[in-house]
């Protein structure tokens, strides 16, 4: 299978079959809540808006991922969430929220909404 983004939200996928006939397949999709939050945060920071509440929301999402993470990953994510909460009302809060290193770890434990499924 090869997933391909085709625009804002639509995706296209394809798969090969071994012989002619009827096949059943399931399409499952979900929203990555952290990536959605991060995208909105970037817009708000660029617009110079107050992001106090956004940073608290981000800390909750990071803690959710930390709850599923193991070992050093869990510790790194809990530390990130703690640093974000501590800096929520300071200018460096947004910089902490947008750090790349912990983001790479968080992406191993996506914070997703319940899946939407469609069977064909």
C-alpha Rg, in Å?
18 Å
The percent range for helix content is 40-55%
- CATH fold-type name of one domain: Methane Monooxygenase Hydroxylase, Chain G, domain 1
CATH architecture of one domain: Up-down Bundle
Distance N to C terminus: 16 Å
Q: Summarize model confidence as the mean pLDDT.
A: 88
Could you give the count of β-strands? 4
Task: Provide structural commentary.
The protein is mainly alpha-helical. The protein is built from 5 helices and 4 strands, in the order E-E-E-H-H-H-H-H-E. The chain has helices spanning 33-46, 52-68, 71-86, 92-97, 100-106; strands spanning 4-5, 11-12, 26-29, 116-119. Strands 1-2 form a two-stranded antiparallel sheet. The chain has a two-stranded antiparallel ribbon with strand order 3-4. The radius of gyration is 18 Å and the shape is elongated. It starts with a strand and ends with a strand.
């Amino acid at each position: 299978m090869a997933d391909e983004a085709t625009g804002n939200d639509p995706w296209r996928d394809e798969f090969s079959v071994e012989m002619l006939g009827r096949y059943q397949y399931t399409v499952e999709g979900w929203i990555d809540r952290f990536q959605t939050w991060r995208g909105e945060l970037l817009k708000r920071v660029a617009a110079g808006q107050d992001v106090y509440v956004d940073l608290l929301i981000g800390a909750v999402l990071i803690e959710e991922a930390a709850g599923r993470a193991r070992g050093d990953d869990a510790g790194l994510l809990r530390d990130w969430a703690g640093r974000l909460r501590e800096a929520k009302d300071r200018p460096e809060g947004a910089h902490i929220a947008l750090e790349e290193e912990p983001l790479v770890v968080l992406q191993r434990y996506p914070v997703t909404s319940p899946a939407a499924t469609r069977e064909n």
